[in-house]
Amino acid sequence: MNCVGFVGLGIMGGPMAANLIRAGYTVTGFDLVEESVKRFTEAGGQAAASVADAVAGADVVITMLPDSPHVEEVALGPDGVLENAKPGTLYIDMSTVRPDTSRRVAEAAPARGVRALDAPVSGGEKGAIDGTLSIMVGGEAADFEAARQVLEVLGTTIVHVGPAGAGQTVKAANQLVVGGVYALVSEAIVLLESSGVDARKGMDVLAGGLAGSRILDLKRETMINREFKPGFRIDLHHKDMGIAVAAAREAGVALPMTGLVAQLIAAARAQGHGSLDHSALLKVIERMNR
Ligand code: NAD
Predict the structure, then answer these.
(1) What is the pTM of this model?
(2) Where is the active site (predicted)?
């Protein structure tokens, strides 16, 4: 299990691949963006010419791609992972995608002798850099055990949450909580600033009390300073809220707050903030009020 093929070397995949290299794995990587490949080779990775080239010699394949269509193409396409991986390969998709995409990959994998897991993550760019991600894994229990050693390089909270697709359902739950917290932190900042109260002092107090959260710890300062360099782009969170709303429909449940947060994130996108960090939800709340 020493050779890893890694496809998708962006904000998350780049540092995750670098951590595997530091841990002693031989990592062969592919990305469409030259700059990302350059960063990867500088970290000690071997550049592949294609997805097929990245996965051909691998014991473990990891993908970290933007959205469901990318994973479907890279996993199931003619030049993709399943077509080109050797039998016995463990394929771990760590992207955030629709649960049915993960189930489709898991259903197609055994015919090629490949074992597939969905293992989306939470913890952001910082978690990827520090190797402290939370990883929620769907798939067979035996395959989860086989993946544990590799996943422990990337994260600290690693939980097998159920069968194929279950990791993605847990990630959808994670994203609706994160979106909701950002919306309310934004409202708190707007309230404080509009009331003539020092927002920095106010948010410092909140961070130490019951309202405290990882988001307040990591982001209150940048939000108050209106620094919205991603991090996690509004466009990607918009995708994730779509997954959450669809999952709720499939489960037959009403999630009213999720619907509202999805609309606020849609507004951020409509206002041209799609490539900013999701903390830029603050701009939407601000524009409603000023
Ligand atoms: P990103 O856009 O920075 O990286 C995705 C990479 O995939 C890009 O470099 C892109 O060039 C590459 N790519 C796309 N299609 C490809 C293909 N066909 N072949 C090879 N490479 C291809 O995105 P990111 O922020 O790293 O997010 C990746 C995934 O992780 C997303 O599903 C996202 O929702 C999830 N995620 C992101 C964060 C975060 O904080 N950024 C946190 C948790 C989960």
Answers:
(1) 0.96
(2) 171
